[in-house]
Amino acid sequence: MVRSIDPDQVGFDPARLARIDEHFGRYVDEGRLAGWQAVVTRRGEVVHSTAYGLRDREAGTPVEADTLWRIYSMTKPVTSVAAMLLWEEGRFELTDEISRWLPEFADLRVYAKGSTLKPYTVPAVEPIRVWHLLTHTSGLTYGFMQTSVVDGLYRAAGYDLYPPSDVDLAGACAAFGRLPLLFQPGTAWGYSVATDVLGRLIEVLSGQSLDAFLTDRIFRPLGMTDTRWYVEGEDGDRLAALYAPDPRTGRAMRYDQLGALAYQKPALLSGGGGLISSAADYHRFTQMLLRGGELDGVRLLGPRTVRFMTRNHLPGGQDLGTLSTGGFAETTLDGIGFGLGFAVVDDPIPSRVPSSVGEYYWGGVASTAFWVDPAEEITALFFTQLLPSSTYPIRPQLRQLVYSALVD
């Protein structure tokens, strides 16, 4: 991607924007990241677009405009938009019980006490509803969280950062339905496989596989030609290598144990974390959101739907700092609500990070991130491949650098 306008024409100081390159350039120069790509826009115009370092340090290949990135949980907003396409067609209500279409989630049990070897559970007093999936208030969890007995049960069933290699989305949902919930639905916030379950709901409601639905209804209409579930052929050379920090030195070390999975067609289409994309593609997705569901004459969602999705839907208007079950390090939680697929800034002051009320965002476990700021008409994207995302404070630092460059 290239800059489409002089930054000072839309209120940005170009010299201050250059601090993004200087700051994150040091991450590469010091060996903490192999390479990265950043894109900042205002009012639909690209004001800053930079690629720095190497997409594959061992091969010596640079980050380029068309580099492909594992976006992991940045898949979640895409799946959430897909679900709301069906909602706009009247295919479900947000208050519907998901067991209406996914019977494996009927008669659920909730963990009360005990160990992974002998958990004690009680009946769920509230069913999982569609809005619980979209807001991560369902009581489902992730095995990789490693903070509760319930996520230990997920790991024992084979569901850690990746699912068993031979299980598809339907099979995974059947397994999740047999496991106890972490909490009663609607009473807390817990990051989870909920968006994978949402992906399965999309399949049942639409009669299409999740990959076909996303291609037909989002990727093709928006021209997101690089977004896919795995890479093959010549495109494999465009994919950035995956890294993790060396516990002794902090330097990024190649992590092919997980990175190599991106070259294989997955059995499970993970609506919560399965996509690979490019900066140009995800830029188009965020521009569609900023423009209220429309881009280049193609409308996916109505503007009121986008505004509805990006308000705080947590019970009682509480924030994640109050409702979170813990073990989640992607973002600062105080002053942050959660909408239908996005974290939402209710109050930027408690986080001590500059942002606007109403800004919404998310990121991926390999340190990718995006946000959309409707008040300032800004979008920002950052791509790298360092796992986990809590290794360095990349996201708050990017906000500092972007907002301090806004001078109008």
UniProtKB/TrEMBL annotation:
SUPFAM superfamilies: beta-lactamase/transpeptidase-like. It holds the Pfam family Beta-lactamase. Coiled coil: none annotated. Residues 20-398 form the Beta-lactamase-related domain. This is CubicO group peptidase, beta-lactamase class C family.
